Amino acid sequence: MKITDVRAMYLRLPEIKSRTDSSQDALIIEVETDEGLIGYGEVDSCPSVAKAIIDAPTSHTQVHGLRSLLLGEDPLQIRYLWNKMYQGTLYYGRSGAVIHAMAGVDLALWDLKGKALGQPVHSLLGGAFQRSIPAYASHMFGFTPQETAERAKQAVDGGFRAVKFGWEPFGRDAAEDEAQVRAIRNAVGQSTRVMIDVGLAWDAPTTIQRAKLLQPYDVFWLEEPVPPDDLVGYAWIAGQLEQRLAAGEQECTAQGFVQLMDRAKVDVVQIDMTRVGITQAMVIAEMAFQRGIKVCNHAFTTRLNTAAAAHFLAAIPNALMLEYCVEPGELTQKLVRSDSVLEDGNVRVGDDPGLGVSLDREVIDKYRI
Question: CA 78 to CA 234: how far, in whole Å?
Fold first, then answer.
């Protein structure tokens, strides 16, 4: 079996709001073979940039587009192909958008391998430690505490036992921040886990001050309070914080996650399948396991990302929870059909071959650029 084509489809909602909301567009990857099998992947990055990385013609031995590196190759040799893509983009890659694009291809290759062998991806990864993964409803903050509380209550009424809110308008004012978190806690009761994604809004001293302010509301973790390169600040925060410290969505390499674990001292690493890829994620999860660190996914795009995360988290012993984006856009809710489904606040991991996903072609035709 040989790869005959690699396609990158850029989908975009008609209106892109000025928010840190990556559910408004998507880059879907298709890897096709001479036996008619197609594997599906996704990239969460700047879609037009990642698409160019896949489609680009060869410039020289260390500057290839990913498609040109993959054509004619055996799609089952996933680890070899990861290394080939890494070495073939060495001059302009090694991190950032190139790794994001590689991650999308990697997901498609795992999906394809599962289909070719008639096995779900979690079996190919060594088997499932759990088949039902606790999920948390992941939201953007409302612009008022009342709006945020309504969204939190809807999540709990829908069966979720954990909720997370993040990004703007949070982080700008201490009183407003406390009002937002108080509204969430009052809406969900005391038995529901509440996580807060600060969205890089604070420095280290502010983080400690706000963490003390939010202590009465039993926040399960504070996520990304400071910029991702402030490893010294992270470590200082970790030494004083009573809440858990979570981060990882800005990272796309194993080296970056080692820095988060060993220098920043985070308690929870968050791995985005569409920025890291399953091949690399398994390496990172093992390193976290050796350090006694829990792993979650990051996912704020389509259900393809969610399905890939479900297979990944099922196949590792240190999975904590699964992020489940509840934004109402069609790309999140309607583009992908998956056999990994939400039931009573848990995602049940499916057994269909590959990632167990299919795409709605009407949604693709409606939003494809």
Answer: 34
Q: Which residues of 126-160 are buried (b: 16+ CB within 10 A; e: fewer)?
A: eebeeeebbbbbbbbbbeebeebbebbbebbeeeb
Q: Which residue has the tokens 């502010």?
A: 206
Phi, psi of 20, deg, nearest 5: -85, 65
How many Cβ atoms are within 10 Å of 329's Cβ, its own excluded?
18
Residue 354's identity, in one-letter code, is: G
What domains sit in the chain, N to C, each tagged with a CATH number?
Answer: 3-119 (3.30.390.10), 124-360 (3.20.20.120)
**Strands 294-297 and 38-43, how do they pair?**
unpaired
* Residue 19 banded pLDDT, cuts 50, 70, 90: confident
Residue 3 pLDDT class (50, 70, 90 cuts): very high
Q: How far apart are CA 66 and CA 86, in angstroms?
A: 9
Q: What is the arithmetic mean of pLDDT over 83-107?
A: 98
In percent, the amount of the chain with pLDDT more than 70 equals 100
Please state which of the ranges 16-25, 173-182, 184-193, 198-207 shows the lowest mean pLDDT: 16-25
CB atoms within 10 A of CB 35: 12
Question: 188 pLDDT exceeds 90?
Answer: yes
Rounded alpha-carbon distances, angstroms, from residue 241 to 212, 224, 234: 8, 13, 10
Give the Cβ contact number of residue 344 at 10 Å: 11
Question: Average pLDDT of 324-352?
Answer: 96
Verify cis geometry, omega within 30 degrees of 0, for the bond prior to 169: yes
**Total residue count of the chain as it appears in this document:** 369
Mean pLDDT of 33-51: 98
